[in-house]
Design brief:
Blueprint (H helix, E strand, L loop, with lengths): L1 E3 L2 E3 L7 E5 L6 H13 L34 E6 L5 E8 L6 E3 L14 E4 L10 E2 L13 H8 L20 H13 L1 E7 L5 E8 L5 E3 L5 H14 L11 E5 L7 H14 L4 E5 L3 H9 L3 E6 L2 E5 L25 H15 L4 H8 L3 H4 L5 E2 L4 E2 L12 H10 L18 H21 L4
Parallel strand pairs: 3-13, 3-14, 7-12, 12-13
Antiparallel strand pairs: 1-2, 4-5, 5-6, 8-10, 9-10, 10-11, 14-15, 16-17
Helix pairs in contact: 2-4, 3-4, 3-5, 4-5, 5-6, 7-8, 7-10, 7-11
Length: about 450
């Protein structure tokens, strides 16, 4: 890419399995947008490009050009395929300034291979009662056609190479393999059917080992979010005409427990033997697992790609590749609080939490915030100033967050937690920032 958004001149080398990560506004999404911008315009008959389409939205040339270059210079996006053929697209500002032109019609490049690029956004379809029947289109960038697809092809016999556990006979159908992975990831199984005399499909779920079927609208968002990913990627077992397609997946971790995130990565790593996968994530669980299993992590730093693999000589920081984030969706999480504390425990070389707290009390960050801790009683204070019965920071914080309304009316003297959810979140954020200060002052990042 040359002169595209934050990139003056940057080459990204993708492998079979790729993870894009880095701080917010570092340029991760711009890489995906460059690919989607061309995908959006493959079928256009004109030199003027579709700037406001289903994938990306650019109102004018100035929105996508690098801010350090003049408008007179073109934007270049160059694609290489596995045969080392290359396609260069030069985008320039139209004379009327109302549109963006390509110096040559994109369709003339005959990029039929690039029609094998499939994208699913972070804004995926959640639980709904019914879905449209599958009508021969794609799964959809919101996963909107996933249920219709499985309803149509659930009994389709798939090639053995796409089957992870070949000892289970039911896995040899499309639905069977979807359910194998859905059970592994989230402990559920799915069934889908087309509704008679309608153009709609419906999905039901059943917990492994149980008989009760639950309609999709009565399940959690994580289930709907992950099943669309599984169906989209496994669809290559049905669409045999596709040769090593590319799947671009934004934030696969949304609404998934860390253990489920790891299982999802096992699925995607297995499928990357037959396709190319590019994901964008903020999940340190995903990043670590991918590197440990020979995937490639591309960290965008100062608008340049840094490549991390299992055998690379780069040192991978333990906490989200050096990107200290207490939030993904502007909400502090107790899980990240615990991860930070565990990181400190390993860095201090402590085997028990109370030893870790002793080390924390010696730090500059703690001394400057000593009001948080009562040195006489060796206990953390809660909001009202009373001494908490819990000694270590993670135990204290988990109880503050998880049990804010655990109040016995007959014992008013024991009412420890009387504050709003926003105040608890503020306390959690403050505690996270406190541990981050300790990490920085010790030079561990």
């Amino acid at each position: 890419m040359k002169n595209f958004k934050c990139y003056k001149d940057c080459t990204i080398r993708f492998k079979n399995f790729n993870v894009l990560c880095g701080p917010n506004s570092s340029g991760k999404s711009s890489i995906i947008q460059a690919i989607l911008f061309l995908l959006q315009n493959i079928d256009t008959e004109q030199n003027n490009l579709i700037t406001n389409g289903k994938f990306v939205h650019f109102d004018e040339f100035d929105e996508i050009k690098n801010y350090e270059i003049s408008a007179a210079k073109p934007i270049e996006i160059k694609l290489y395929d596995t045969a080392k053929k290359s396609y260069i697209f030069k985008l320039e500002k139209s004379k009327n300034a109302d549109s963006i032109r390509c110096e040559k019609k994109i369709k003339e490049f005959q990029l039929k291979e690039e029609k094998n690029i499939f994208y699913i956004s972070a804004d995926r379809i959640g639980p709904e009662d019914v879905y449209d029947k599958y009508k021969g289109t794609t799964i959809g960038f919101q996963g909107e056609n996933a249920i219709g697809f499985i309803a149509k092809f659930k009994d389709y016999a798939i090639d053995e190479k796409y089957i992870y556990d070949k000892d289970i006979p039911s896995n040899y159908t499309f639905l069977g393999e979807v359910n194998y992975w859905l059970k592994e990831i989230i402990g559920e199984k799915i069934n889908a059917d087309n509704l008679d005399k309608t153009d709609r499909s419906r999905a039901t779920y059943v917990k492994d080992g149980q008989r009760l079927q639950v309609r999709n609208k009565n399940t959690g968002s994580g289930l709907s979010y992950v099943v669309s990913i599984i169906i989209m990627v496994l669809s290559i077992a049905v669409n045999k005409a596709q040769e090593r397609p590319t799947f671009i997946i934004e934030n696969p971790e949304i609404h998934l427990h860390p253990a489920a995130q790891i299982k999802l990565m096992q699925f995607l790593l297995f499928m990357s033997n037959y396709c190319q996968i590019i994901i964008e994530t903020h999940s340190d669980h995903i990043i670590k697992h991918v590197i440990e299993n020979n995937g490639q992590v591309i960290k965008i730093h100062n608008f340049l790609p840094l490549y991390y693999t299992k055998n690379s000589h780069r040192i991978l920081p333990t906490i989200t590749l050096g990107e200290i984030k207490w939030t993904v969706f502007d909400m502090p999480t107790i899980d990240f609080h615990i991860s930070l504390y565990s990181y400190l425990q390993s860095k201090f070389g402590c085997s028990r939490p109370n030893q870790t707290d002793d080390e924390i009390r010696k730090t500059v960050a703690f001394i400057s915030n000593k009001k948080k801790y009562d040195t006489k009683s060796r206990r953390y204070r809660n909001f009202s100033g009373a001494i908490s019965e819990y000694e270590t920071l993670p135990t204290y914080m988990r109880n503050v967050i998880d049990h804010p309304k655990k109040i016995r009316p007959d014992e008013p003297a024991r009412r420890k937690y009387r504050h709003s959810e926003s105040e608890f979140e503020a306390a959690l954020k403050k505690s996270i920032e406190f541990m981050i200060d300790i990490i920085y002052e010790n030079g561990w990042l």
